[in-house]
Amino acid sequence: MAVWAFKLAERLLKAPLPRRWAHVRGVAERARSVSALFPYGEASILVEAAVLHDIGYAPDLALTGFHPLDGARYLRDSGHPERLCALVAHHSCSYREARLRVMTDELSEWEDEKSPLRDALWWADMTTTPDGESTNVHDRIAEIEERYGPDDLVTTFIRQATHDLVGAVERTEERLRAARLGHVTK
After folding, report:
1. For the range 160-165, what are the long-range contacts, defined as Cβ-Cβ under 8 Å and sequence gap of 24 or more?
2. CA–CA distances in Å: residue 12 to residues 77, 86, 112, 131
3. Where is the secretion signal located (predicted)?
4. In the prediction, which pLDDT does 181 show?
5. pLDDT score at 8
């Protein structure tokens, strides 16, 4: 599942951004761990989006400085499916950061599908540390705030997005409990 996506993300992230590469691998593993919630085709796109969600940080792709947009544009320009581009563009409540960056129009090229699959992608990202380890959403948000500092735009964004991010995590964990998959975050 998603071998091509792993190869692409590894090529773009491993050498220049090894910690980001560790995070991406962790997010992909988390996504794979909940893929049983979805039919095969859906599970595959979930893992692909998890692997590719942060490729916009790659130095060769970081054109606007807004990684969800840069990653989605690269995927679009490379001929990848619209849905995959949209999941990357809208991962982890990016529309809120787009507002702060005055990039809402650019992000609006893709629609946020607001689906259980989208929630699972957000869950995987928001329950994985920068080093690829499992965590819980509250510790992850606190880590982001600490890493960026109190006056950074990303800190402002994450504070504004907390309710939406926690909601996506809680909905995903409820779906896991209902499916009796027993997956629980720290």
Report:
1. 160/96, 160/100, 161/92, 161/93, 161/96, 161/97, 164/93, 164/96, 165/92, 165/93, 165/122, 165/126, 165/137, 165/141
2. 16, 20, 25, 17
3. none
4. 72
5. 98
Q: Which residue has the tokens 């705030």?
A: 145
Burial (0-12, 13-18, 19+ Cβ within 10 Å), 79 = exposed
CA angle 83, 70, 114 (to 5 degrees): 35
The angle at the Cα of 125, spanning 169 to 112, to the nearest 5 degrees, equals: 75
Residue 183 pLDDT? 57
Below-70 pLDDT ranges, the chain: 1, 182-186
Q: Which domains does the chain have, with CATH numbers?
A: 3-178 (1.10.3210)
Q: How far apart are the first and last CA of the chain?
A: 26
What does the H/E/C string look like for 73-113?
A: HHHHHCCCCHHHHHHHHCHHHHHHHHHHCCCHHHHCCCCCC
Say if residue 100 is exposed, middle or buried (CB neighbours under 10 Å; 0-12, 13-18, 19+).
middle
